[in-house]
Amino acid sequence: MSEQITIERLLYGDAGIGHLSDGRAAFVDGACPGDVLEVAVEKDNGNYLTCSIKEIVSPSEHRVTPKCPLASVCGGCGWQHVAYDWQLVEKRANVVSQLQRTAHFDPDRAEAIVAECKPSPKQFGYRNKLEFGCQIDPKRGFLMGLHRRGSDDVLPVDSCPLAQGPLSKTPKALKGALRYLSGSNDLGIYRVGVRQSARTRSTEIALWTTPGPFPRATVAKTLGNAMKCTSIVRVMTGEGKKARKLKGVELLAGDGYWKERVAGQPFKVSAPSFFQVNTEQAETLVELALDGLEIDEGSVVADLYCGVGTFTIPMAKTGAEVMAVESYGSSVRDLRRITEEEGLYIDVIGGDAARELPGLGHLDALLVDPPRAGLDATIIPAIAAAGPRRLAYVSCDPATWARDVKRLEDQGFELVKATPVDMFPQTHHVEIVSIFTNRKN
Known about the structure:
Layout (H helix, E strand, L loop, with lengths): L1 E5 L2 E2 L4 E5 L5 E5 L6 E9 L3 E11 L25 H18 L5 H7 L15 E9 L3 E7 L6 E3 L13 H13 L6 E8 L6 E7 L6 H11 L4 E7 L8 E9 L3 E5 L2 E5 L9 H15 L6 E5 L7 H5 L4 E6 L2 H14 L4 E4 L2 H4 L8 E4 L10 H8 L3 E6 L2 H13 L2 E9 L9 E8 L3
Parallel strand pairs: 4-6, 11-12, 16-17, 16-19, 17-18, 19-20
Antiparallel strand pairs: 1-5, 2-3, 3-4, 5-6, 7-8, 7-10, 8-9, 10-11, 12-13, 14-15, 20-22, 21-22
Helix pairs in contact: 1-10, 3-4
């Protein structure tokens, strides 16, 4: 069955939405708002249909030709066919939509609160990090590349236009070196991460492997010859379902960390630690969050899910008394090293945010930057009990953020501003910096 439809908007994902003649919603990957399409129904999901494009009858004025020839098969950037100015419109619209549908905001209030999406200075060439999946194919041997759209299969690539400068060309060099090293042996490498800073010229290769024997010296020499880098490390994790459990990090060559600079602040980041992939937009996040918190010398502030301290360090430099909580050991160690090198006093607490927050006492301001799953329900009452006058919530997922907005408002906080920040051009992903005031104060 096929039918002609008009695409109305983009969903938070790679699909556009239109409606069939019988009123049912059709989700169509690769669609652009304004497209008139002939679509084929692939799957009936009950309240909506999954469709594919049979023919673009009339392309939208917002449709452009993707820069990357693999855009339709690679799972990394599903919005390359949409003009950048319209990507920003759709990202803001998704944030507004979540406030209405999930947080149950009045449409006028949602529109008034959500600012225009902050564009990335670079639409391509903005990523400071690339990650590649690795597989051993019985016929082709060692494979390294990006993940194919909709699967875990590795798609071999020689370059990536989202990566900044020389980093965009690293796949080809790395792939050849690792194929040579693997030979007929499986070295247990299942992921490769490369970070490169345009500001410090620091480049680190991280090989994610299962534990076991490993030819350290040979790997270091071969990779060092293939790529100019300042650090090579091996990150060992468990196998299967325990693949996320860190077993250890081995320094193979160089510094043992990656160096980046945000708003003039140097960071030394270990391979397992998270860091924003768009450095220039990371500065935008910091500026928006600190402006919204209105902290100054003497303010008592906490930073939950603080990572390596992207927000923590700027907070401390205002003269505020800062407590930082992070559960991931690698990030805790990185932040403690930075505070020592910078001569700052920050109370860095290694532990779970929900467990540690009640012991921090009264706060003047609080910043939370949780993972994609958002805030645990148990931490919301603890935030209210801490009584911060202002709260900044930085989120990478509009749905879980909107859920938490509702919970926070039920606890006496009022969302006064939300600013989408485009950290990831050519994709549906968006960061949100939101500011709350405490009605009780």
